[in-house]
Specification:
Low-confidence stretches of chain B: none
Largest sheet of chain C: 5 strands, antiparallel
Oligomer: heterotrimer
Helix content of chain C: under 10%
Radius of gyration of chain B: 19 Å
Low-confidence stretches of chain C: none
Radius of gyration of chain C: 20 Å
Shape of chain B: globular
Number of helices of chain B: 15
Bound molecules: zinc ion
Structural class of chain B: alpha/beta
Strand order of the largest sheet of chain B: 3-2-4-7-1-8-11-10-9
Chains: A mainly beta (160), B alpha/beta (389), C mainly beta (161)
CATH architecture of the domain at 5-120 and 210-227 in chain B: 3-Layer(aba) Sandwich
Order of helices and strands of chain B: EHEHHEHEHHHHEEEHEHHEHHHHEE
Strand content of chain C: 35-45%
CATH superfamily of the domain at 5-120 and 210-227 in chain B: Thiolase/Chalcone synthase
Largest interface: A-B, 38 and 43 residues
Number of strands of chain B: 11
Order of helices and strands of chain C: EEEHEEEEEEEE
Distance between the termini of chain B: 13 Å
Structural class of chain C: mainly beta
Distance between the termini of chain C: 49 Å
Largest sheet of chain B: 9 strands, mixed
CATH topology of the domain at 5-120 and 210-227 in chain B: Peroxisomal Thiolase, Chain A, domain 1
């Protein structure tokens, strides 16, 4: 085969999106309703080990027991632990397009609850980003439910 | 204690960023044939075939189904595993479990990724649940970028140390005929001046996207004796999961969580009576998507105290000629066919133990080595290999 | 879909995400697969591949024999006519079907000279007239519309004898 003239290779491209429906279930839906209706983050504290279960879930990830229904409000303020920003376009597989507006992303240590959450930062000036900076969620005026950027625009730097 | 199990054949493809000339199935076939040849076996001799691939990266679902002919699985038992970065190690672990338990005598595992077929970062972004990580998650690079920032803060390592790791990887890759990126980097300045990718990672700090496949044949003790006089024994395997959304996934900035690598190594060493891996094990092929990760996992695998991984690099301990070589093949930083990446790690350890690694053969004698893999929200697999048991 | 949406289930207060996976994928057809598609495009010919060891002709061609694991390279012509082995009539539209409209009739055709079934669609036929064992013939698209795709064959239609 190696001595034959260069062969034309055919590649088939498939672009049709594959739709699906993903059910959030009982516990996540409760969080999303709180986000939409009351602009606050809530989760359940495990009835067995007293840990904040995050994201809210029927089963505690730590002790693997039913987490119960001790719902508590979680702070929407916190400190940036780590951050990063991209210098290349990211593809959004759910929309089928490259993302245009890029914000830095950070792991945020939410106050008073050992929850570390990855979210967008409002601050785009790279020189102003530093670990330990204080941030707070900026809620959308009209939350749609579903958490994340449906309800929260980004986290804004705050002075304290 | 189950039956003793040895690796009796290995095969890998040359790795490239694009392979428009072969289908996914043909790529797998390119690794299966040399593995059979290496073991001097025929497909008829194989009892079962396990396949590994992260199918969403290519967009073919049930790749095990479409490649029955090509992996040699026709009319044989077996299954596919897709466990993220650990895929290529998970299939060997499961094959090992089956052979050590006496279910099969000889098993072929074949793993592949063909990253010119889709968008792996997009697929990883899509892998998280729609309601949660989606839209937030930005592929693997995002996690390794944040991890690097934490590592700088806690360990006192500098970008120059990460660059030294990258330079070491390229040296190995340039000597390894199968590696993907052979950059011929001259100094750490080449790395430090490469374009920013995802802060603080630069282009050369992170692994490439490769097309490639790797196959391994294992057998029980009785069959091994008939097949080869250069077996590499699987002393033990281990897999540890960390919970998602927890600190400790890729890095721990809290000081309270435990890494899956650390726990996996601890258990593996304890079970095998290893108290000082630097003395009792000779080398490793580890799963390091970024050069920062490699320094961190030196620590987690117990090769040095915490926050001192960069010192091993500084002293050249993990170089090919060093006291304790890590990734003489060039590692994941040079070659990353995701589903097959850990299988390549294992195959490279086999080459080193056999003394058949050619130009990238380490200077010291290798009797014991381990290969590792890292997947998804920080789960770790390890395979401990020995020349004799 | 231009943005990510959520729904609330009518009979409960739970959220559902009607999303999609929209990553374009490219599938190289490989060495013999490419030759097969090029023959469809350029010559309206259907090629198989023969295992001399097992005397099997595979359509579409594949580079490895499933029986003997031999490497295959001997391309052979097979007929554009064959026998309908089985079929299914799909009335429910799906977002990923290969052609517009319903019903889509999928069939497995054993082409004359081949040892394997070939999956394609059936056309120019009333589903009620379909019969296992009936003779069918490939209908190709016009030269302009052939692009080295499996859909360069439009469908198989009943062969009037
Ligand atoms: Zn608990
Ligand atoms: Zn054959």
């Amino acid at each position: 085969m190696a001595n034959e003239p260069a062969q034309e290779y055919i590649q088939v491209t498939y672009k049709k999106p594959r739709p699906y429906r993903w059910a959030a279930g009982e516990y996540l839906s409760r969080l999303y309703r709180e986000c939409r209706d009351n602009k606050r983050l809530m989760t359940v504290k495990c009835q067995h080990c007293n840990e904040h279960v995050w994201p809210p879930s029927k089963v505690c990830g730590r002790c693997k027991k039913p987490s119960g229904d001790n719902w508590v409000v979680v702070s929407d303020k916190g400190s940036v632990v780590q951050f990063t920003y991209t210098n290349f376009p990211m593809f959004d597989p759910h929309v089928g397009k490259y993302m245009t507006e890029e914000h830095p992303f950070a792991t945020i240590d939410l106050d008073d609850c050992e929850i570390y959450w990855v979210a967008k930062l409002e601050e785009k000036d790279k020189d102003k980003l530093k670990p330990g900076m204080r941030v707070q969620a900026v809620w959308r005026e009209e939350g749609r439910g579903g958490g994340l950027d449906h309800d929260i625009l980004y986290f804004r730097t705050i002075e304290e | 204690m189950g039956n003793r199990v040895a690796i009796v054949g290995i095969g890998q493809t040359y790795h490239k960023s694009h392979r428009p000339d072969v289908s996914q199935m043909e790529l797998v076939n390119e690794a299966v044939r040399p593995a059979l040849a290496d073991a001097q076996m025929n497909m008829k001799d194989i009892d079962a075939v396990f396949v590994g691939n992260m199918e969403t990266f290519e967009g073919i679902y049930l790749p095990d189904h479409s490649m029955v002919d090509f992996s040699g699985a026709y009319m044989k038992p077996g299954f596919k595993i897709a466990s993220g970065g650990t895929t290529g190690c998970s299939i060997l672990e499961e094959a090992f479990h089956c052979v050590t338990a006496g279910i099969f005598d000889k098993v072929l595992v074949a793993a592949f990724e063909k990253q010119d077929s889709g968008d792996s970062t997009g697929a990883i972004t899509a892998a998280t649940t729609p309601a949660w990580g989606k839209g937030q998650a930005r592929g693997a690079i995002h996690e390794f970028a944040k991890q690097a920032l934490s590592y700088i803060k806690h360990s006192g390592a500098t970008e120059a140390h990460a660059a030294m790791v990258r330079l070491k990887a390229d040296k190995g890759a340039c000597r390894n005929p199968y590696s993907h990126l052979k950059l011929g980097l001259k100094s750490i300045d080449d790395i430090l001046s490469s374009e920013p990718l995802e802060y603080p990672l630069r282009l050369f700090d992170f692994c490439p996207q490769s097309c490639g496949a790797c196959a391994i044949i294992i057998a029980n003790e009785e069959e091994t004796k008939k097949i080869t006089n250069k077996p590499v024994w699987i002393a033990d395997t281990i897999c540890v999961h960390q919970e998602i959304f927890r600190a400790g996934a890729f890095c721990d900035f809290t000081g309270k969580e435990r890494y899956s690598q650390e726990i996996a190594a601890e258990r593996l060493y304890k079970r095998n009576g290893i108290t000082n891996p630097r003395k009792e094990i000779d080398m490793a092929e580890v799963y390091e998507p970024s050069d920062w990760e490699e320094m961190l996992i030196y620590e987690l695998f117990g090769l040095c105290p915490r926050n001192e991984g960069w010192k091993l690099v500084e002293k050249g301990i993990t170089e090919i000629e060093g006291e304790w070589p890590v990734n003489p093949s060039g590692g994941v930083l040079s070659t990353n066919p995701i589903g097959a990446t850990p299988t390549v790690r294992i195959a490279e350890c086999v080459l080193q133990i056999r003394g058949e690694a050619g130009e990238h053969q380490v200077t010291k004698d290798v009797n014991t080595a381990f290969a590792t893999a890292l997947g998804g929200p920080n789960w770790t697999s390890m395979i401990l290999l020995k020349k004799s048991v | 879909m231009t943005e990510r949406t959520v729904e609330i289930l009518e009979d409960s207060d739970r959220f559902v995400f009607p999303w999609q996976l929209a990553i374009p994928n490219t599938y190289p057809a490989g060495v013999v697969g490419s030759k097969f598609l090029i023959e469809l495009r350029d010559n309206k010919k259907i090629k198989g591949i023969k295992c001399p060891e097992c005397n099997q002709v595979y359509v579409p061609p594949r580079s490895t024999c499933k029986y003997c694991f031999g490497e295959l390279s001997e391309l052979v012509d097979v007929s554009d006519k064959g026998t309908l082995v089985t079929y299914a009539v799909s009335y429910e539209p799906t977002p990923v079907q290969p052609v517009e409209g319903t019903p889509v009739i999928y069939g497995i055709v054993k082409l004359d000279g081949a040892d394997t079934g070939f999956v394609h669609m059936l056309g120019e036929v009333d589903p009620k007239q379909l019969e296992i064992g009936m003779r069918v013939k490939a209908v190709f698209k016009t030269k302009k519309k052939r692009v080295a795709s499996i859909l360069d064959i439009k469908y198989f239609k009943p062969l009037k004898i």
